[in-house]
Amino acid sequence: MTATAKNYLFAQLDELEPQRCPCGWTRRAFATPDNTVATIHYVDIQADARTHYHTKLTEIYLILEGEGFMELDGELIPVKPLSTVLIKPGCRHRALGALKIVNIPVPAFDPHDEHFD
Predict the structure, then answer these.
(1) Is the separation of the CB atoms in 45 and 106 below 8 Å?
(2) Distances in Å between the alpha carbon of 110 and those of 38, 47, 116?
(3) 12-15, long-range: CB within 8 Å, 24+ apart, which pairs?
(4) Could you tell me if 58 and 85 are in contact, meaning their C-beta atoms sit under 8 angstroms apart?
(5) Domain ranges of the chain
(6) DSSP 3-state percent helix, strand, coil across the chain (nearest 5)
(7) Considering only the top CATH level, what class is 19-113?
(8) Would you call 71 helix, strand, or coil by DSSP?
(9) How far apart are CA 93 and CA 48, in angstroms?
(10) Contact 88, 55 (CB under 8 A)
(11) Is 14 helix (H, G, I), strand (E, B) or coil?
């Protein structure tokens, strides 16, 4: 009998090790070399969030907690729980405020596709 890989991945976001990112602190699930489809990040936005952009990634933000703003190509958009934003490649962006969000990058997150002006 031959072993087969499972046809799914599972992660418990609150149990993943947080790491620093331009937005604050993130817990990234499914960020493995063999997964190029998508990842999911649980992000605690910090006051020092930096404006950045991606050339290949599209990101979907879902605000879970807090109220604040998304800065999108210089425009401030108010956000609150259950606000969602689709951020296309090339859009300079950052979140402002004490927010907890879910971020879904498509294709999968690539740290080399994080750019700053």
Answers:
(1) no
(2) 10, 24, 15
(3) 13/40, 13/42, 14/42
(4) no
(5) 19-113
(6) 5, 45, 50
(7) mainly beta
(8) strand
(9) 13
(10) no
(11) helix
Instruction: Please state, in angstroms and rounded to a whole number, the distance separating the CA atoms of residues 11 and 35.
Output: 14
- Characterise 73 by phi-psi region: left (phi > 0), alpha (psi -120 to 50), beta (else): left
d(CA 51, CA 76): 12
Please give the structure tokens belonging to residue 3: 């072993």
How far, rounded to the nearest angstrom, does the alpha carbon of residue 72 sit from its chain's CA centroid?
15
pLDDT in tens, the chain (117 residues): 566 778 999 999 999 999 999 999 999 999 999 999 999 999 999 999 999 999 999 999 999 999 999 999 999 999 999 999 999 999 999 999 999 999 999 999 999 999 999
